[in-house]
Amino acid sequence: KNQVEQSPQSLIILEGKNCTLQCNYTVSPFSNLRWYKQDTGRGPVSLTIMTFSENTKSNGRYTATLDADTKQSSLHITASQLSDSASYICVVSRIASGTYKYIFGTGTRLKVLA
Amino acid sequence: GAGVSQSPSNKVTEKGKDVELRCDPISGHTALYWYRQSLGQGLEFLIYFQGNSAPDKSGLPSDRFSAERTGGSVSTLTIQRTQQEDSAVYLCASTVDRTANYGYTFGSGTRLTVV
């Protein structure tokens, strides 16, 4: 079954600290993996997109890693800021009958405290 | 426009009424998706439009849900005889094409509350 699981479900950290969010998937055949940030009341915004051959990709203070062998990805946030408070969603795409399908994780809700 | 525009941003309706949600994708984006996000849940795929191809309706939860995309641009999601379990945020997203090599852009969503 094609699934995307994220952990932790929620996380509270102090401003300035680092954190790592996890995404495990059982999606096949794998096409690519995206991390999205969703602020409260807004639509998700893309942070990174990674294909099978990419191990790491950075976007400012966000660094995503991908291990295609173990089917795991992580999103590392460095020197967190209050504005990082949001839900982070892992999305894995697969190809089925010539069409791309997207499987969404339920997200990790991050709260950064001053 | 510069982004994906959805309207209305909030909709409160009485159970049994019909509602129409609108999505105006980024100009030139051939692929358009509708998703539903219930409280505390992940994003649930509803329907996918790609150019002039027949839409992928495999995610629509019941025959009360329908969607159309006129002229390959604006899309309308219609929910007939709304039920309380239809309460959710309905998100629309568009992307350049069907190759999935590009990120897709979400609208801010329509928060539907059925009372």
What does this structure look like?
- The complex is a heterodimer of chains A (114) and B (115).
- Chain A is mainly β.
- In chain A, 0% of the residues lie in helices and 62% in strands.
- In chain A, the strands form two sheets. In chain A, strands 2, 4, 5, 9, 10 and 11 form a six-stranded mixed sheet that branches.
- The radius of gyration of chain A is 14 Å and the shape is globular.
- Chain A starts with a strand and ends with a strand.
- The relative contact order of chain A is 0.34.
- The mean pLDDT of chain A is 90.
- Chain B is mostly beta strands.
- Chain B is 0% helix and 46% strand.
- Chain B is built from no helices and ten strands.
- Chain B has strands at 5-7, 10-13, 19-24, 31-37, 43-50, 65-69, 75-79, 88-95, 105-106, 110-114.
- In chain B, strands 2, 4, 5, 8, 9 and 10 form a six-stranded mixed sheet that branches. In chain B, strands 1-3-7-6 form a four-stranded antiparallel sheet, with no helix packed on it.
- The mean pLDDT of chain B is 88.
- The chains are: A mainly beta (114), B mainly beta (115).
- Chain A binds chain B through residues 31-32, 34, 36, 41-46, 49, 89, 91, 93, 99-102, 104-107, and chain B through 4, 33, 35, 40-45, 48, 50, 56, 91, 93, 98-101, 103-109.
